[in-house]
Design a protein that fits this description.
Radius of gyration: 27 Å
Organism: Populus trichocarpa
Shape: globular
Strand content: 15-25%
Number of strands: 20
Family: Belongs to the R-transferase family.
Largest sheet: 8 strands, mixed
Catalytic activity: an N-terminal L-alpha-aminoacyl-[protein] + L-arginyl-tRNA(Arg) = an N-terminal L-arginyl-L-aminoacyl-[protein] + tRNA(Arg) + H(+)
Helix content: 25-40%
Function: Involved in the post-translational conjugation of arginine to the N-terminal aspartate or glutamate of a protein. This arginylation is required for degradation of the protein via the ubiquitin pathway.
GO molecular function: arginyl-tRNA--protein transferase activity
Distance between the termini: 30 Å
Number of helices: 13
């Protein structure tokens, strides 16, 4: 076996077909309930292989036939049978164009490293697709007096504040959905926090003079849930299905937002279903010089317990040290402790569910035969194989990416992170770093050009973020051709399983029938020559 491994190493870096024999056994189909569509029947169908060893070249070929790995298990969905077809998605790193949202994620991390963003307490663990669009970093005095003429700069500043507050409310609503306080099946409205007019602040009501912003989102949530329940209501439903009244919803949301409001110089109260923000008293004088921080670039809040402070309040900012370390896959007690915390806090696993043996099985064990650097342009400086990429801030391990580095790509398998750092969007940030890594290492290894994001399920809203890394491609499940996402999307909008390359053929005015027989047979011949079993059919 050692001889085969050495042979595989040499062949993997030479680019020829003398790859060594992979050791793979067929474990047949695996049927289970689906965690994506929540089907309770055995509707999720995958073909599973057990691999004791496999070369990086052969595994690259398997990825390009729709396979993935979890530990030493290789699996592939039976696309025409499974309830939620899973399409392999990839991106050519050199073509990647970051969106405004992705740029904000990078800038937020940079601000955090620069010492502009302070975390006062543990942040509630969320990986929310919507991130605040503006940051709190520029102090502005908002007294009880307001001039009649508002400059354009002041107006923009006010817009940034209300946008950020709205995003914060949305994040808390998302958390409530995940925890079961609101039904997950209902699409809830987006929050809108508005500035209170000068006229309303002059009303003879206690605290009105300090009222700055307000939102009626609790009324909208209650109405939306009530409408959804009225549609599906039948005789078997009881009165227990009545939604919470706006007053209770507002109180719950205000309680969750309280700490975040305080760190930004505001106080928050629920009042008859409304969520109201007030200026907080500063020092012992009066409420005249209450402060809230704002910015036009990005939001560093949006999660409980973080704020961006002005230098006048914190004259000396402590810079942080961010290190990204790449190491071969191996068991690390510190990584396992972080994984346990992540699974228990983010995925609500019980401590008994998160065992060291399962962690080793799925995230440490690997069948990939490692390839060491060759000193030429066939292998990157780190070599090929399975790796753990650690994100360390001031010596504290905050995230770990489980990845495979292969002749053509970096394949992302899993990421776990410290729930206290959820406000930094570690999932998005790590993806951007991995894309950047591919760009940098293509210089050393020209064949290494792609970033594989795993599977994409069009019917699963939680998977949609993967298509935001553009321009991406999906793998056709029949012909194993790569199809641009914008071409595949209309097909997937109509049905979950589609022969994606049909769309390309039709655009080119070609018939799909000859390619079905010819290309599929050609792919089967390639599979046999590599001596790798994909399926029984």
């Amino acid at each position: 076996m050692e001889g085969n491994k050495r042979k595989s190493d040499a062949s993997s870096s030479s680019g020829n077909n003398n790859r060594g024999e992979p050791v793979v056994s067929d474990d047949d189909s695996l049927k289970s309930p689906c965690c994506y569509c929540k089907s309770t029947g055995l509707t999720s169908i995958f073909h599973v292989l057990r691999a004791d060893s496999i070369t990086v070249d052969d595994f690259q070929d398997l990825l390009d036939r729709g396979c993935r790995r979890s530990g030493s298990s290789l699996y592939k969905p039976e696309m025409d049978k499974t309830c939620c077809p899973s399409y392999t998605i990839r991106l050519r790193a050199s073509d990647f164009v970051p969106s405004k949202e992705q740029q904000r994620v990078s800038r937020r991390m940079q601000r955090f490293v620069d010492g502009a963003l302070d975390v006062k307490k543990a942040v509630e663990a969320i990986e929310d697709p919507s991130i605040c669009a503006s940051a709190f970093n520029e102090v502005s005095s908002l007294g009880t007096k307001e001039t009649s003429s508002v400059t354009k700069k002041e107006k923009n500043m006010g817009d940034h504040i209300t946008d950020s507050l709205s995003e914060q409310v949305d994040n808390v609503i998302w958390t409530c959905r995940e925890s079961g306080q609101f039904p997950c099946s209902v699409q809830l409205p987006k929050a809108s926090v508005k500035k209170v007019s000068q006229a309303k602040r002059k009303l003879p009501v206690e605290g009105a003079e300090n009222l700055m912003y307000s939102s009626n989102i609790a009324f909208q949530i209650a109405a939306t849930i009530r409408q959804a329940q009225s549609i599906v209501k039948d005789a078997s439903q009881s009165a227990e299905d009545n939604p919470l009244p706006p007053k209770i919803i507002a109180e719950n949301l205000a309680a969750s937002l309280d700490q975040l409001a305080k760190t930004n110089g505001l106080s928050i109260r629920a009042c008859n279903g409304h969520i109201n923000y007030y200026t907080a008293a500063t020092q012992a004088s009066s409420n005249k010089d209450s402060h809230i921080a704002t910015s036009s670039q990005e939001s560093a809040t949006g999660r409980k317990g973080c704020s961006l402070r002005n230098s006048s309040m914190h004259p000396k900012r402590k810079r942080r040290r961010l290190e990204i370390r790449l190491k071969r896959s191996s068991f690390d007690p510190e990584e396992f402790a972080l994984y346990r915390r992540y699974q228990i806090n983010v995925h609500n696993d019980t401590p008994d569910d998160v065992s060291e043996s399962l962690y080793r099985k799925f995230l440490v064990d690997t069948p990939l035969v490692p390839v060491q650097p060759s000193g030429d342009d066939r292998v990157p400086p780190c070599g090929f194989g399975s790796f753990h990429q650690q994100y360390v801030i001031d010596g504290h391990l905050v995230a770990v990416g489980v990845i495979d580095i292969l002749p053509k790509c970096l394949s992302s398998n899993y990421l776990f992170w410290d729930p206290d750092y959820a406000f930094l969007s570690p999932g998005k940030y790590s993806a951007l770093q991995e894309i950047g890594w591919v760009k940098e290492n293509e210089v050393y290894c020209p064949s290494l050009q792609y970033y594989y994001l795993g599977y994409y399920i069009h019917s699963c809203s939680k998977m949609r973020y993967k298509a935001a890394y553009r321009p991406s491609e999906l793998l056709c499940p029949l012909r194993y051709k790569w199809v641009p996402f914008e071409i595949a999307q209309p097909l997937l909008d109509k049905k979950s399983y589609a022969v994606l390359s049909d769309s390309v053929l039709l655009q080119n005015g070609e018939s799909s029938q000859p390619l079905v027989s010819g290309n599929v047979m050609e792919e089967q011949d390639d599979d046999n020559s590599n001596n790798v079993l994909i399926d029984d059919e």
